[in-house]
Model the fold of this input.
Amino acid sequence: MSNALAIAAVTAVLKDRLNDGLINSDLQSLGSFSVTCLPPDRFGVGGADETPANRLNLFLYRISPNTGWVNERLPARTSAGTRMTNPYLALDLHYLLSAYGSEELNDQIMLGYGMQILHETPVLGRDAVRTSLAGGAVDGAILPPAFQQLGAADLAEQVEQIRLTPYYPDLEATSHLWSSFNTSLRPTALYQASVVLIESKASTRSALPVRERRLVVPTLRRPRIERLLSQPDAVTPPTEGATIIHGHRLVLLGSGLRGNVTSARIGALTVVQADLDLTDRRTAFDLPSALLAGIHGVQMVHELAKQDSSETIPAERSNLQAFVLSPSFDPANVTLEDATLVDDLQPSGPVNGTVSITFAHDVGRQQNVQLSLNELGAPPDTAPRAYGFEAEPLAADIETATSINFPIRGVGQGTYLVRVRIDGAESPLEITAGAYSGPTIEVTP
Done:
């Protein structure tokens, strides 16, 4: 592969091809001539060389990245910065071929011969490169000691051979180009040499060879959850539209639910395959006791087991299906404490106190917990009374609790239906003979 001398080596090869081509064309009638690789401002009036001469000058005026090879070897380093590969420095070289003549038309004659020579050399073959560089026009002696072992002949060994392509800009672009040289416009032809692949010789870290190939071709299951049902226990059939509460089993209906290694994911909680009643179209499992009341999403997760290993790799996931886990409590665990009359002079007047509820699950300190009281058995001509209260916040050092207190103020005496709403999920009410019947609490002093 090419090294740091590649750019100069390409220029040297092109110069040699032009020089040989002019000699073989027998241009003695023009007088003496030369082929150079100097900046254009070195010639003509005001330049370092003001002597008229027949000269063909090849100048490298621009270098650009080659988009086809620049990303061939990425990534080059690991996340820790260790070198994995030596990426190519892939370059396109842009040349300006200009002519100078001591007599009228000599510059145009030389430019015509130069363009013909390059036209007939569209590719710099490997043997031609070795021959042109055999004379040592470019070698490592001009480099720092650490690089003096480099050889320009490495250019012949690179994967991609050098291709030479002419291109023809408009007059404005040519004028701008010569203006940047701060010299007068000359007969000009532009060429692009592509591609130079410079590769570092630095040591790289290579991986060990593959000792054994293990190919696994799984069948895509495309898991999809279509419906969610609640099942009180493993024996009772699930009921459509039933409230989902702690202690119930969650039933998922769909397709492709069973995979190689299957689990159910609810937020940050995972139900492993051993705890799933699993088939391809139905999955049921007990709701995790650590799951807080509120709105959640459930998803089936498929993984692939590695051969001869307990590890797994990710495979597919189902759609995310939302459900509401309602708060639940035993009606016997609803009590009124510290009940007192608001006004001692009104024995049948409103009451202050604290409603204490012990839930069948934990309630988080950050959850929004509200108590709703709706009067049960109000007189026919009287609108039922209703109240709403916020829960007492838990202490700062307590993250979850099962017993929650609700301070109540100014509640009329009577029997009330008790509902609790936690993060938008509401506890269910009992229904008897088509009417709500519980849970209830007696509010009396």
User: Anything to note?
Assistant: The chain is about 10% helix and 40% strand. The first strand starts at residue 33 and ends at 36. The chain has three domains: 6-198, 224-326, 329-443.
